[in-house]
Amino acid sequence: xxxxxxPALKPLVGHVATRRRGLGLGVLLAxxxxxxxxxxxxxxxxxxxxxxxxxxxxxxxxxxxxxxQDRCASCHGPAATGTARGPDLLPRVRExxxxxxxxxxxQRYDWNLPPAQARSEGAAREALVEEIVQRNAGALxxxxxxxxxxxxxxxxxxxxxxxxxxxxxxxxxxxxx
Length: 177
Known about the structure:
By secondary structure, the protein is mainly α. It is 64% helix and 0% strand. It is built from 9 helices and no strands. Helix 2 crosses helix 9. The longest helix is centred in the N-terminal third of the chain and has 50 residues. The radius of gyration is 34 Å and the shape is elongated. The protein starts with 5 loop residues before the first helix and ends in a 10-residue tail after the last helix.
């Protein structure tokens, strides 16, 4: 039997060791690249999550629903889809942002008149105001709510509720608290 001498095994052992080292380096490199890809994935999610957070209006849909039922539903209906006394709010809210919504709710009186006539001054305007107050002419369809603490304190909640209704993410019933 021919025995291999130890010096004859050295090249074979060296080759196996080099191959294992190369395989280990390859696995290490592949792992590093995979982890780097995960880091990029995590970094890419953060802006998307931030944009999603900013796209969602501030406020509580449930609290907005409660205020709406208390202060607005008598004219606009319990689902905000309108009545004979007030229009459907969903298409209107869908077209406006939170700033415009706040301005309209807190400060708007809709006189159902041409803007020049509604902004007139003096005795003519006072007569018009008196006719509207007495419900003899015109219609005051939307009161300004700036002096109403429940509405002004929860204006962001009202917008959250109405925008959720307008977007279809909230049905006509009571939202979850």
